[in-house]
Amino acid sequence: MTRYSAFAIAREAFRQQSGWKQAWSSPEPKQDYDVVIVGAGGHGLATAYYLGRRFGIKNVAVIEKGWLGGGNTGRNTTIIRSNYLQDPSAAIYEKSRSLYETLSQELNYNIMFSPRGVMMLAQTEHEKRGYLRTERANALQGVETRFIQPAEVKKLVPIINLNGPRYPVLGALWQARGGTARHDAVAWGYARACSDMGMHIIEQCAVTGVESENGTVSAVNTTKGRIGCKKLGIVVAGHSGALADMAGFRLPVESVALQALVSEPIKPCMDVVVMANTVHGYMSQSDKGEMVIGGGADGFNNYTQRGSWHHIEETVRALVETFPMISRLKMLRQWGGIVDMTGDRSPIISKTPLGNCFINCGWGTGGFKAIPGSGWATAELIAKGEPGPLSAEFSMTRFREGRFIDESVAAGVAH
Amino acid sequence: MLLLTCPCCGVTAEETEFSPGGEAHLKRFGPGSSDDDYETYMFQRKNPRGVHFERWRHAYGCGKWFLAARDTMTLEVFGTYPAQTTEPPPEIIAKIKQKRPEWEGFK
């Protein structure tokens, strides 16, 4: 792998950019691998990366039905934060956030991590009390957050309207070390590092079936033929239900569409991320100047990556009251992603009824921020066959056992 | 935007007039049932790509619950029918089979 550096840029400038290599190779699949990961999004690639880096397992294939990072990794609003209420959530999201801080250096790939601060507005008395509680929980968990008063909100976000008639700003939960990153670059950076370790990333290769006997997976059948595996990791977000069906078990998951939109690019006006969970809207400004706006999820099972107009209307109508200056902005584009929702709105990193098959899913509306931590924990589960401290609580048996990690109350819908 | 017809009051309206209520035809298991049955009833969902039977409520209309057959890949609504049934009626099944010959049927 050619390392990226200022020196490399200077060198290539002198030879007409002819020395850049392909960032990751596109090999034909082998007959079999030690580990096959289904899904080359952020979580799948991060899992493969940490399998190699932490456990030395490098005979790995990551197979992807579309293109790399073309699912939810390329469809989110890139928010990174860890101010969760419950201890297991705070632990894995904080691990993830801390890995993001040094990920560019570690991968030698600029993921443009921007710790610009994340603010969650309290717009009802109920929400304010909830965030005061979260602030104290975060203090105990070692996650640095602070409840700030309206005057400080106004100082950090001058374009905000504090005295909206319907949604007044009563304060905010502020995580100064949260922020955003370039979502595609996270997938590309991990893919490049995996490829460098000799792993195979096989795009345009859909899984059509899972072969198993006596409760053990032996291979996956794909559109590029049969691929044998000693262990299988399923990391396919919205399509987890379909993969589980092929493997012969069911999940406590339902898939719905979540959508986002961006405005036309404008001059810098807001340098933090603002989330307004009462109205299901959140907004940040990208480096290109677009206002990136995320909204609520559709309420019904859905596999169309579209979203719906009335949710855009709801989100934007509410945000316009809080940010009057966006009322005349034009919308540039809008898209949807299929998110896998669990009953308690917490993820699943778990063993399955098949002994050597593991699943990572259920990140719902909040998967992007979790990519490094999720990969870290899932790699440990696959390598050792048993969950480590970060993933132990996220087993799919928690529903049966009544051990919910209830973030639907804690985090609302925007996530 | 889905267009749904409420079989209780006969009104056809946009989806904003209704609230979705998740998978239909769940077999209910209460106290005294096995852990497996209870877990299946409470949490596990078919979540299919394709034909889905689901519950809706005419929230901003007559307020009644009813059931619908819909395709989760295309959002096509095959039809709606009253909630007082344990499986989809034959005319709905026939309509789905006509449009989706490869469909495996209601399980």
TrEMBL record, chain A:
Rhodanese domain boundaries: 35-79
Pfam families attached to this UniProt entry: DAO
Gene3D superfamilies in the record: D-Amino Acid Oxidase, subunit A, domain 2 (3.30.9.10), FAD/NAD(P)-binding domain (3.50.50.60)
EC number per UniProt: 1.5.3.24
Catalytic activity annotation: sarcosine + (6S)-5,6,7,8-tetrahydrofolate + O2 = (6R)-5,10-methylene-5,6,7,8-tetrahydrofolate + glycine + H2O2; sarcosine + O2 + H2O = formaldehyde + glycine + H2O2
Gene Ontology MF terms: nucleotide binding; sarcosine oxidase activity
One GO CC term, this protein: cytoplasm
Protein name, UniProt field: Sarcosine oxidase subunit beta
Origin species: Roseinatronobacter bogoriensis subsp. barguzinensis
Automatic annotation (TrEMBL), chain B:
InterPro entries listed in its UniProt record: SoxD, SoxD_sf
GO BP terms: tetrahydrofolate metabolic process
A single MF term (Gene Ontology): sarcosine oxidase activity
Gene3D superfamilies attached to this UniProt entry: Folate-binding superfamily
Pfam families from the UniProt entry: SoxD
Protein name: Sarcosine oxidase subunit delta
Native organism: Roseinatronobacter bogoriensis subsp. barguzinensis
The organism's taxonomic lineage, starting at the top: Bacteria, Pseudomonadati, Pseudomonadota, Alphaproteobacteria, Rhodobacterales
